[in-house]
Amino acid sequence: MIKFSIITSAFNAEKYIGASIKSVLANNYPDFELIIIDDGSTDNTMKIIRSFDEKKIRIISLKHVGPANARNTGIKRATGDFILFLDSDDILAVNVLSTLNSRISKQNYDFVIFQWLPFKKEIGDTRELPHATNSIDGMETTIWNKAYSINLVKEIEFPSDTTFEDVAYSAQAYIRAKNIGYIKQTLYYYRQRENSITRKIHNPKRRLDILVGFNKLIQDINNKSLKIEIEEINQIGLLINQIVYAHIKCILRENRLDKDAYFVLSALSKFLKNNENLLHCKFYRNRKRNDLAKFLMFLINRRFYKLSRLILKFNG
Predict the structure, then answer these.
(1) Which residues, including other chains, have CB under 8 Å from residue 174's CB and lie 6 or more apart?
(2) Coil, helix or strand for 8?
């Protein structure tokens, strides 16, 4: 039987942390630990966590160090064979651990991708279809719809002190994995919140954090000992191009085009330009979307930022 370590980083999560913990404890599976890292909460998060009299819950209290450092700490303290990540406002399916145990035990996987579904207030209140496929660009950058063998995560870590700490993490695990599994079943539920980090309008300079993880991923591509397949490199190129392009679009849509915005747009476009031979300059599998992205990047590389914003406004 596989032991799972479920790692949750919580900061001022009093509104949802209780429901998140209950979803873990609802799993009818005996061998797991829930490691909750309280990241310096100033509300009732710790009080709610301590209200659960459960030996499987391990609590680590830190000063506010950010999710990357908190998760790295959780991994170092984990005693399980496999690691799962759970955001403090999300929900695990009641059968996630038994399902993973069955599939991993039979197939000897060291990295497993499974589907996830968004919700707002209650599970099933959106009309979206389950997310995630079994390719590097299709599995998405989210870390919580995967299970990682402990040996795998010992080889990688979240970049310290970054906002978008997880953009490259799963891809780094994927290319190191010896046997990858895919479960076409929804085992994770993601709560959509207007004030979540993925929905906030960031200081544009914080978006440069994505390059920290992606530079590590590019180092991996150039690491001959990893023996990465050509198709995997193509998928990594799609992933990186899509995410960087998405952040560029966010800046054009959400931020004033001031000195900071121009600096970040220039840095992001320069990163893609410098790595275009490696990343093959493809943004989407869909030809129409890919052609639009290429045209916008052509304009951005020539600093036609206002024109790019105008075209984006009318073309999504």
Answers:
(1) 111, 136, 139, 180, 232
(2) strand
To the nearest 10°, report the CA torsion of 221, 280, 164, 57: -50
Q: Please report, for the chain, the start and end positions of each structural domain, with discontinuous segments joined by +.
A: 4-191, 204-315
For strands 111-119 and 57-62, give the pairing.
unpaired
Helices and strands: H and E segment counts in the chain: 12, 8
Q: Report pLDDT digits (tens) over 221-269.
A: 999 899 999 999 999 999 999 999 999 999 999 878 999 999 999 999 9
The CATH classification number of 4-191 equals 3.90.550.10
Cβ neighbors of 129 (< 8 A, separation 6 or more) are none
pLDDT attached to residue 269: 96
Are the C-beta atoms of residues 51 and 22 closer than 8 Å to each other?
no
17 vs 88: CA distance, rounded Å: 5
DSSP string of 94-148?
TTHHHHHHHHHHHH--SEEEEEEEEESSSTT-S-PPPB--SSTTTS-S-STTEEE
Indicate the DSSP class of residue 13.
-
Query: DSSP state, 26?
Result: T
Name the residue among 281, 265, 282 with its Cα closest to residue 273: 281
